[in-house]
Amino acid sequence: MAKYELQHDRPNCIGCSACASVAPDFWKMNDDGKSDIIGTSVGLDGWERKELEEQDFSANKSAAESCPVNVIHLVKKETGEKII
């Protein structure tokens, strides 16, 4: 069972590519200049979401911390606590 949810506020992404540089196994740059979580699609609200296991937490925490506009979030699934 996934422990975390990775959330990306794609509409507010500025396309700096920091996340893709820090965690290329999870993030890629799209043709429109914004980043995408690999293996997800954009929801009706413009956000991307992906469930993460413990072993994927560290790389995505680094990606979130590298984002200059704070559009990447990690949430504990069990409690709903926003870590970043």
Write the topology of this structure.
Blueprint: E1 4-8, H1 18-22, E2 27-29, E3 35-37, E4 48-52, H2 57-66, E5 72-76
Antiparallel strand pairs: 1-4, 1-5, 2-3
3D architecture notes:
This protein is α+β, with helices and mostly antiparallel strands and 84 residues long. The protein has a single domain, classed as Alpha-Beta Plaits, CATH 3.30.70. The chain has helices spanning 18-22, 57-66, and strands at residues 4-8, 27-29, 35-37, 48-52, 72-76. The strands form two sheets. The protein has a three-stranded antiparallel sheet with strand order 4-1-5, covered by helices on one side. Strands 2-3 form a two-stranded antiparallel sheet. The mean pLDDT is 96.
Keywords:
two-stranded antiparallel ribbon, single chain, three-stranded antiparallel β-sheet, globular, alpha+beta, 2 helices, 25% strand, 84 residues, 5 strands
